[in-house]
Structure prediction request, 497 residues.
Amino acid sequence: MSTGTILALTLYFISMLVIGLYAYRQSSSNLSDYMLGGRKLGPGVTALSAGASDMSGWLLMGVPGAIYAAGISQIWIAVGLVVGAYLNYILLAPRFRIYTELAKDSITLPDYLENRFADPTRLLRLVSAVVIVVFFTLYTSSGMVAGGKLFESVFGLNYQLGLFLTAGVVIAYTLLGGFLAVSMTDFAQGIIIFVALVMVPIVAFSALNQPSELLSTVAQLNPSHLDLFTGTSALGIVSLLAWGLGYFGQPHIIVRFMAIRSVSDFNVARRIGMSWMIVSLLGAMAIGFVGIAYTHQTQTQMDDPETIFILLSQVLFHPFVGGLLLAAILAAIMSTISSQLLVTSSALTQDFFKTFLHKTASDSLQVLVGRAAVFAVALVAIWLALDSNSSILGLVANAWAGFGAAFGPVILMSLYWKRMNHWGALAGIVSGALTVLVWAYSPYQLDGKQLNDYLYAMIPGVAVSTLLTWLTSLATTEPGEEVSQLFQQVSDKSKEV
Prediction:
């Protein structure tokens, strides 16, 4: 690893720590400040932090690698994600922001669900918090594994050393500055990712011997790479598009909508967020296509298609710039880890400690517990990630579907259906999560395929969750007057904006 690359990565790590220190100095002992930034995020920070925490390392490695290996038929997942993210801004974001503030200033997803339905049993808070803590601890671990492997494969460092470097910086700025630090670093990381995904394909394209013949070169090497339907089926396309359904239930994404300073800012946030997402996805796909032609012309052997971004960033740029481009991968990984750490910490603090252990805890004590929870969850995640071949990665592949099916239908219906009650919400969360787990890991096969290979678990999970939420709500008592009045308040305020 060259001196320029080391310098670039060092500057990146230092800048993340400086942002964390700044956020610490700006924050107070108020719990809402630590967990939601005091609901003061501007539209730009909201949009880019949501995008950066969403995409993770798959945007810079998974998408280019999929296009490089299989061609344009892999575009369907990007289409599904774009549509899902757009609908998330339209259907969920504004009304959810209003509801969480009016529902006793809810600052976590379990907090919102309990307050929205005035759940007297507290089961709704407990079950949703358990789902978040378990899945996000594993999810966080997978991100740390990715960071360790990046340092090992690219920089030749020991895997455990790379793991601790990645985890140490994320823990430091999350521990110090809470939600504000996470959102500000995500904003910076979102810019780094965007610049990398625009710069690399343009420079790589200009480096080709005959840039104008890019498509003909790809077609000559493998005509199926330009076919939208190669290697897939109608159910396969539906499964890829269904990834977009997951947005409605991802706690680390929708928490950004709770923190924006005003509902009126969502129009600007949507334009910024969707522009960032579309350009970034197009850049990632372009890297895969240009990479096919570049490796053919230079006779470069690619053992792992997912490293095509790394290859182009290292051979086409000065070592210092190449180091900054590699920092984009770290940015994608770390932005997701920090968001997941904070959401898990907030569930442990607000939904376990405050609710069940110390009901009279002051804000300053809760902030202290929140910081301790960040550290504790990170330690567990590091312990799970010490084995680079951990089977956790298999579970994380289905975490998106698990969260999407468990929370997506419940949250959307809670925003628009007055008759829904806490029993319906509880049934939806439990049935959605269990359906995904059974569907993803059942040994049963259909037409010689595992169920999850035949049809993405998100689809049956969302269907079962929606159905049981509806049926259970109708079969049990109607919501009380307090719940109905809150629903009407939110509806009236939504019309105003």
